[in-house]
Amino acid sequence: MRVYGSILKLRLLVGFQYRTAAIAGVATQLFWGFITIMVFEAFYKYAQTPPISLKELIDYIWLKQAFLVFITLWFRDNELFDLITSGNIAYELCRPCELYGFWYAKLLAQRLSSAFLRCFPILFVALLLTKPYNMTPPQSFSAFLLFLTALILGLLLLVSISMFLYISVFLTMSPVGSLLIFSVIGEFFAGLIIPVPLMPEPLQKIADLLPFRWTADFPFRVYSGHIPVQEAIMGIVIQTVYTIILIWLGRAALNHVLRRVAVQGG
Amino acid sequence: MIHLDGIGKSYKIAKRQTGLRQAAKALFYREHTIVHAIKDISFSINQGEIVGYIGPNGAGKSTTIKIMSGILMPDTGICTIMGYTPWKDRTQYVQNIGVVFGQRSQLWWDVPVADSYQLLKDIYKIPQQDYKNTLNLLIETLELQTIIHTPVRQLSLGQRMRCEMAASLLHNPKILFLDEPTIGLDAVSKMAVRQFIRTINKEKGVTVILTTHDMNDIEALAERVILIGKGSLLYDGRLEELRKRFGSHKTITVEYKNNPNPVHIPGAATLSWSPQRAILSVDTNTMKTSDLITELSSQVELEDVTIESQPIEDMLVQLYKEYRV
Amino acid sequence: MKLYFKYLLIHFKSQLQYRTSFWLLSIGQFFIPFTVFLGLYLLFEQFGQIKGWDFFEVALCFAVIHLAFSLSECLARGFDVFSSLIVKGEFDRLLVRPRSTFLQVLGSKFEFTRVGRLLQSGFVFVLALSNLSIEWSITKVLTLLFMISSGVFIFTGIYMLAAAMCFWTVQGLEVANIFTDGGREMAQYPLNIYQRWVTRFFTYVIPFGTVNYLPLMFIIGKNEGNELLTMLIPMAGSLFILPCFLVWKIGVRHYRSTGS
Q1: SS3 per residue for C128-176
Q2: Which subunits count as partners of chain A given 3+ CB pairs below 8 Å?
Q3: In this complex, do A50 and C173 lie within 8 Å of one another by their Cβ atoms?
Q4: Long-range contacts, stretch C133-142, CB < 8 angstroms, 24+ apart
Q5: What SS3 class is residue B181?
Q6: Cβ distance of A176 and C28 shorter than 8 Å
Q7: Contact check, Cβ <8 Å, B70/C95
Q8: Cβ <8 Å between C17 and B151
Q9: Best exposed site among A24, A55, A234, B3 by fewest CB in 10 Å?
Q10: Do residues B242 and B235 lie in contact, with contact meaning Cβ atoms separated by under 8 Å?
């Protein structure tokens, strides 16, 4: 735990050094949030009975901006990619069983520290904006707790999905191709282009089958109350199940690939 | 041809703090210090000279070079090169100069050298016939025939430097600024580069200004050196003069028939002694080498004598010490 | 300028050296804006229209801006990545050459993989035009061409401004993305769907409006104003690049008086 504390402190220090970069990053995200909301605002002007209210949608959009690093697949660890493609992986192969856990923790820490710097200013501004752009505070304490749980589980789920990306690099030896197509599909069905309720029926069905929506679409709608408490609790269970399955599969896949690499001599 | 008068330049450097609290303070306020890079630099260089521009790191060498090549604008002073003020008439002026930055390449990385040269021809608007003639001459002199169609990224450092030199001369500049041209090169390549510089200087009258830490470059090429230290001009004159003042010490190693008595020559220091061999150091300003040897032969039966000049590095260290840089 | 094309050629040659990654990246560059367009399409499926505009009209708007953006990404990339040029100290090399720094930076980088996005916007462009009933005339065709070319000027101008900032600081340049990526995302819709202050800012300060709302109305046939005047509106937008060029010059001057 102490290690994470000092990593966080180091990140903050670096963050202060690149103060302009940090402010610029936050400004960029605020801007994107604004534009997205304004576009939806225009759509909603003449809409009859949308499946999700504008207020809930605005919450969704601001949460997406604040926790962007928690939900995007393309946040990648170049160091890891280079390790695999260069073959230096041989050094890490001493204990293939623990490798999964080690990498998992590393990816998790990266996203956490990255989000930590950004989410607070964005949420702060979003809550203080004038109507109708502002984000509404959580409905109830239980909704908020559920949201936090869903968010964290979503992050764990996402990291377990992204582990597959690194595993695929073992096979293709080039990070670019697999990363791009996979993350495009993943982000779409996570509700990052448009929220799942706004998709047409057939696409919604596909989205429900895939694990992606449990990383972003689900926790954000729990927050705004669009997903009621009962359904939320069910959803959290599903998240947990997915995460466990994907971690288990990921571990198996990684071990399998590593064994192949060892046999071939790197 | 090149005239500098009273050139001076200072920089504002931001102070950096350590620690979390200081860093947070820096979010709102930054302190600055003023660094005088160069002060009152004046010298003149005639056409066809090869000048070595030397000094310790941070002395202001690259600042002066940047001013002379038109990149930087000085705070004070006048600089006239071939009738131009470098930073004022930049585009016209730089048509006549070539620059080689030792560690950075001006060639495009992934394409054959010849393609880079073609593009440079267009950038410098070199007429086709002139370009062909110059290129052929350069290929011959630098032996580029085998490498000119290879992409730069596949060349060794020595090959790359030869191509760089050729690239800087395609447009027949009258002045060539060389910033550490032999850095990282092997001995053979170094000699090739030096030979080449001598040739173009002699045959084309190109004025060469050479910045380097490799004193062998200076010795091989420059008759005149300008020493700059802590931003001021400290020495401007012939290399021999410098040598006479600071490089007068010679080391003499003698081997002789077994002699139990230590060798002692007044006016010379004995660095080491054994019954068969002694190493002495003498300041040739105070005692001639021939006198020393005569004296020695009266004391021992000489079998072999080796005389070595003071390495130029030592000379420089002494020089820096004297000027307290 | 002839030299510009020579630069283009040498970059093309060097990028062809890496054939597989070239194709992979280009394909990827196709799919990213494709999902954005897909999102657009699905939103229209859900809502039917946006403040009076129908899908194909917005698609045309989308196509024009994305065409302009991808063209400027391909051609003016030198300014986009200028920060790395400065950091590596390569700018001195440009100052020692007898050409304007503007031309040299422009020629310092081309990214042909962006052709994926160009292709995608091309498809949308054709799609939109073939589904809209437009009464074509010479002025309308010219207006459309001016819209695209002026868009290129505007984006290039923003890139130049961001690059010029590098002369003072190499940090915080992400802000420029607000105006390039952000501007693109925003201007892909007709500007009148937004609040007035947004429309005003993006018409008078960064003139996306000149390649968006009014000329668009004209082409679709909803505009009653003077034809010739409407055709000139995009051209006015392209003047944006002039102050950007000025800032660039000021930046170069600053670099040369303070060193780096």
Answers
A1: HHHHCCCCCCHHHHHHHHHHHHHHHHHHHHHHHHHHHHCCCCCCCCCHH
A2: B, C
A3: no
A4: C134/C219, C134/C220, C134/C221, C135/C221, C137/C227, C139/C227, C139/C228, C139/C230, C139/C231, C140/C218, C140/C219, C142/C231
A5: coil
A6: yes
A7: yes
A8: yes
A9: A234
A10: yes
Pick from C95, C104, C105 the residue to mutate for testing the B interface (most B CBs within 10 Å).
C95
SS3 for A157-224 is HHHHHHHHHHHHHHHHCCHHHHHHHHHHHHHHHCCCCCCHHHCCHHHHHHHHHCCHHHCCHHHHHHHH
CA distance C160 to B254: 70
What's the CA gap between A167 and A164, in Å, rounded? 5
pLDDT digits (tens, 9 = 90+) for A89-113: 555 555 555 677 777 887 888 788 7
Integer Cα distance of A239 and A216 in angstroms: 11
Distance from CA of B27 to the nearest CA of A (A): 7
Q: What is the pLDDT of residue B188?
A: 83
Average pLDDT over residues B233-256: 81
Distances (CA, A) of B192 to B140, B181, B306: 13, 12, 29
Query: Which whole number is the average pLDDT over C235-249?
Result: 89
Map out the domains of chain B with their CATH numbers. Answer: 46-243 (3.40.50.300), 248-309 (3.30.70.250)
The chains in contact with chain C, meaning 3 or more Cβ pairs closer than 8 Å, are A, B
Per-residue pLDDT, A266? 44
What are C45's two structure tokens?
A: 């499926």
Confidence (pLDDT) at C204: 81
pTM: 0.79
Tokens of C67: 């065409």
Chain A residues inside the 8 Å CB shell of B24: 16
Looking at chain C, how many residues does it have?
Answer: 260
**CB–CB contact C258 B12 (8 Å):** yes
Determine, for residues B116 and C3 on separate chains, whether the beta-carbon distance falls below 8 Å. Answer: no
At CA A254, angle to CA A253 and CA A255, rounded to 5? 95
Contacts of C42 (CB under 8 A, 6+ apart): A194, A198, A199, A200, A203
Judged against a pLDDT cut of 80, whether residue B65 lies above it is answered with yes
Amino acid of residue C245: F
Give the domain ranges of chain C. Answer: 2-258
ipTM of the complex: 0.81
Provide the token pair at C158.
């923003």
Q: Is the pLDDT of residue C190 over 50?
A: yes
Q: C143: buried, middle or exposed (CB in 10 Å: 19+, 13-18, 0-12)?
A: buried
Interface touch C13/B111, C-beta < 8 Å: yes
CA–CA separation, C14 and C111 (whole Å): 11
pLDDT in tens, C33-55: 888 888 888 888 888 888 878 88
Chains that touch B (3 or more CB pairs under 8 A): A, C
Are C98 and B94 an interchain contact pair (Cβ–Cβ within 8 Å)? yes
**Interfacial residues of A (vs C; Cβ cutoff 8 Å):** 18-21, 23-25, 27-28, 31-32, 35, 38-39, 42-47, 50-51, 174, 176-177, 180-181, 184, 187-188, 193-194, 198-200, 203
Residues C196 and C221: beta-carbon distance below 8 Å: no
- Determine the 3-state secondary structure of B133 from DSSP: helix
Residues of A in contact with C28 (CB under 8 A): 176-177, 180-181, 184
**Contact assignment for C96 to B69 by CB distance below 8 Å:** yes
Using an 8 Å CB-CB cutoff, list chain A residues near C31: 180-181, 184
What is the rounded CA–CA span in Å between residue B99 and residue B72? 14
